[in-house]
Amino acid sequence: MEANGGDSSEIVRELEALKLRKSEIEHRISTLEAKLQETTAAVEPCDAVSNGYSSPSSPAIEHGLEHGLSPDQIYRYSRQLLLPSFGVEAQSSLLKSSVLVIGAGGLGSPALLYLAACGVGRLGIIDHDVVELNNMHRQIIHTEAFIGHPKVKSAAAACRSVNSTIKIDEHVEALRTSNALEILSQYDIIVDATDNPPSRYMISDCCVLLGKPLVSGAALGMEGQLTVYNHNGGPCYRCLFPTPPPTTACQRCSDSGVLGVVPGVIGCLQALETIKLASMVGEPLSERMLLFDALSARVRVVKIRGRSAQCVVCGDNSSFKKQQFKNFDYEDFTQFPLTAGPLNLLPTESRISSKEFKEILQKKERHVLLDVRPSHHYKIVSLPDSLNIPLANLEARINELTSAVKEKEDGHVNTGSFTNPSLYVVCRRGNDSQIAVQYLRESGFDSAKDIIGGLEAWATDVNPSFPTY
Amino acid sequence: MQLTLEFGGGLELLCESVKIHKVNVDLPDGVDNLNMKHLLSWVRTNLIKERPEMFMKGDTVRPGVLVLVNDCDWELSGQLDTAIEEKDVIVFISTLHGG
């Protein structure tokens, strides 16, 4: 335990260098594996066409097997072939099928791994995001070596390492109305593993136009939901939710949190429903919805409405065609911007930067620092000497703020100085703090100012070792 | 009338984070049979403690909320006109979008 600062910083440096090299090597491996696969596929074009998959081993035809499975495939998928309710016919259908998974996140991770493992012939992955450290607890397809790299590359490498005999398509791009029809049309089944309302409406509408079944999963906090849309005369997403919910009802995992295993459970079930559709086995979860409550360990399957004849997209008199789809603004429709800039409520004089706030601390200027984040956020990390009153309770607990301000005043009674202490308001990213300042100024706290960019800006611009979440 | 009311998908936050409510609902004056319209109004008055606009819009639930009467979408039983009977289980669930 005597290690001095010099030694440990050297170790840290060497570790960083090694990690960087490791990540480069893994990336190279993934690229080479992809290349090898393309070469193999090119050498055996007949096989690739006949059953939608490229096998490096001897073609099935030599063995006279009608189902088209090669000896290697029979061995690899034997435990599924042994299932009387699945068997070689279902496996053969699976190998001929193609599936697109939209989103390689918490839902997409287990869905992709199982779909690759079970032998879906061609698996498409689309996502525009890169892997981040705060994804790792739930997006189990990614490894630390891929942090900073595209999720699609990472997910594709993981799928290939599980099953090198299936074809994997990488779409490193965002799904938009301009490319959705073209991309989705290349697949038999679509898996919605996204995390926001505009994408969910867009994907459902696109599936209706193309006549594709949609396996839709969602998870947040401790709950998950699953259903199959647009299958065999069943409802589409719009039949169920013709009007988008208010934006305030659309929470994100990055704001509300999610226990990693919850999307894991739903993602696994999405893989299961997809396998059932692709192999034509069992009863798909159409016109039914599965509701999962992790805390009480309860799963409920409920009956939901069928296709609505009045649905504006899949209804009898729908005039929604490909051209309307291409011009449809889903972010506007759902009032849910996908690239939300920071809020800008306040005039410049009501705001200070985190660097300016640091100077105030250094000069020991009299002030009250109000943190308006929810209390469970405050418990994770906070600035010293701050007062926590969550924005939702600010109005009800305003007297606590009044006394805190008064306390700072009282401290200087003896010197005869009665100037009010300054009041600064901080939150996680600098949006709620502006709403709070606006309210406070209307309620007589004339000196209230918000710290621009919140604690995230504090961590970026002032103290890089301050934890972010 | 003994009923079980459940809130999920975040709607429980509007009723003090309690998901399952075993309640006793009396018939409103002059009403012989309770229906969902009466029940929604009862829920709004007796269970919803904050932000009622996150639960209702006009006289029905807000967009994005599914209502299930005995595990069946209320669209299949007449929405607001759905008759409620002793021991029924009514679930209000907000659709999730995360992943």
Automatic annotation (TrEMBL), chain A:
Annotated GO biological process: Mo-molybdopterin cofactor biosynthetic process; tRNA wobble position uridine thiolation
Molecular function terms from GO: ATP binding; metal ion binding; molybdopterin-synthase adenylyltransferase activity; molybdopterin-synthase sulfurtransferase activity; thiosulfate-cyanide sulfurtransferase activity; URM1 activating enzyme activity
ATP-binding found in the keyword field: yes
Superkingdom assignment: Eukaryota
Binding site for ATP: 106, 127, 134-138, 151, 195-196
Chain segments annotated as coiled-coil in the UniProt record: 15-42
CDD domains: RHOD_ThiF (cd01526), ThiF_MoeB_HesA_family (cd00757)
Enzyme Commission number(s): 2.7.7.80, 2.8.1.11
Family matches, as Pfam families: Rhodanese (PF00581), ThiF (PF00899)
This protein's UniProt keywords: ATP-binding, Coiled coil, Cytoplasm, Metal-binding, Molybdenum cofactor biosynthesis, Multifunctional enzyme, Nucleotide-binding, Transferase, tRNA processing, Zinc
Pathway: tRNA modification; 5-methoxycarbonylmethyl-2-thiouridine-tRNA biosynthesis; Cofactor biosynthesis; molybdopterin biosynthesis
Active site, per annotation: 253 (glycyl thioester intermediate), 427 (cysteine persulfide intermediate)
Signal peptide: none
Gene Ontology cellular component list: cytosol
Cofactor binding annotation: Binds 1 zinc ion per subunit.
Catalytic activity: [molybdopterin-synthase sulfur-carrier protein]-C-terminal Gly-Gly + ATP + H(+) = [molybdopterin-synthase sulfur-carrier protein]-C-terminal Gly-Gly-AMP + diphosphate; [molybdopterin-synthase sulfur-carrier protein]-C-terminal Gly-Gly-AMP + S-sulfanyl-L-cysteinyl-[cysteine desulfurase] + AH2 = [molybdopterin-synthase sulfur-carrier protein]-C-terminal-Gly-aminoethanethioate + L-cysteinyl-[cysteine desulfurase] + A + AMP + 2 H(+)
InterPro entries given in the database record: MOCS3/Uba4, Rhodanese-like_dom, Rhodanese-like_dom_sf, ThiF/MoeB/HesA, ThiF_NAD_FAD-bd, Ubiquitin-activating_enz
UniProt cofactor(s): Zn(2+)
Binding of Zn(2+), residues: 236, 239, 311, 314
Positions of the Rhodanese domain: 363-467
Family the entry assigns: In the N-terminal section; belongs to the HesA/MoeB/ThiF family. UBA4 subfamily.
Function: Plays a central role in 2-thiolation of mcm(5)S(2)U at tRNA wobble positions of cytosolic tRNA(Lys), tRNA(Glu) and tRNA(Gln). Also essential during biosynthesis of the molybdenum cofactor. Acts by mediating the C-terminal thiocarboxylation of sulfur carriers URM1 and MOCS2A. Its N-terminus first activates URM1 and MOCS2A as acyl-adenylates (-COAMP), then the persulfide sulfur on the catalytic cysteine is transferred to URM1 and MOCS2A to form thiocarboxylation (-COSH) of their C-terminus.
NCBIfam families listed in its UniProt record: PRK05690.1
Protein name: Adenylyltransferase and sulfurtransferase MOCS3
Naturally occurring in which organism (per UniProt): Arabis nemorensis
Gene name tied to this protein: MOCS3
Automatic annotation (TrEMBL), chain B:
Pathway recorded for this protein: tRNA modification; 5-methoxycarbonylmethyl-2-thiouridine-tRNA biosynthesis
Residues recorded as bearing 1-thioglycine in the entry: 99
Span of the signal peptide: none
Post-translational modifications reported in the UniProt record: C-terminal thiocarboxylation occurs in 2 steps, it is first acyl-adenylated (-COAMP) via the hesA/moeB/thiF part of the MOCS3/UBA4 homolog, then thiocarboxylated (-COSH) via the rhodanese domain of the MOCS3/UBA4 homolog.
UniProt key word Heme: no
Keywords for this protein: Cytoplasm, Isopeptide bond, tRNA processing, Ubl conjugation pathway
One Pfam family this sequence matches: Urm1
GO terms, biological process: protein urmylation; tRNA thio-modification; tRNA wobble uridine modification
Subcellular location(s) per record: Cytoplasm
CDD domains assigned to the protein according to its UniProt record, in alphabetical order: Ubl_Urm1
UniProt KW tRNA processing keyword: yes
Glycyl lysine isopeptide (Gly-Lys) (interchain with K-? in acceptor proteins) cross-link, renumbered residues: 99
Gene Ontology CC entries for this record: cytosol
Classification via HAMAP family: Urm1
Function: Acts as a sulfur carrier required for 2-thiolation of mcm(5)S(2)U at tRNA wobble positions of cytosolic tRNA(Lys), tRNA(Glu) and tRNA(Gln). Serves as sulfur donor in tRNA 2-thiolation reaction by being thiocarboxylated (-COSH) at its C-terminus by MOCS3. The sulfur is then transferred to tRNA to form 2-thiolation of mcm(5)S(2)U. Also acts as a ubiquitin-like protein (UBL) that is covalently conjugated via an isopeptide bond to lysine residues of target proteins.
Family note: Belongs to the URM1 family.
Listed name of the protein: Ubiquitin-related modifier 1 homolog
Source organism (scientific name): Arabis nemorensis
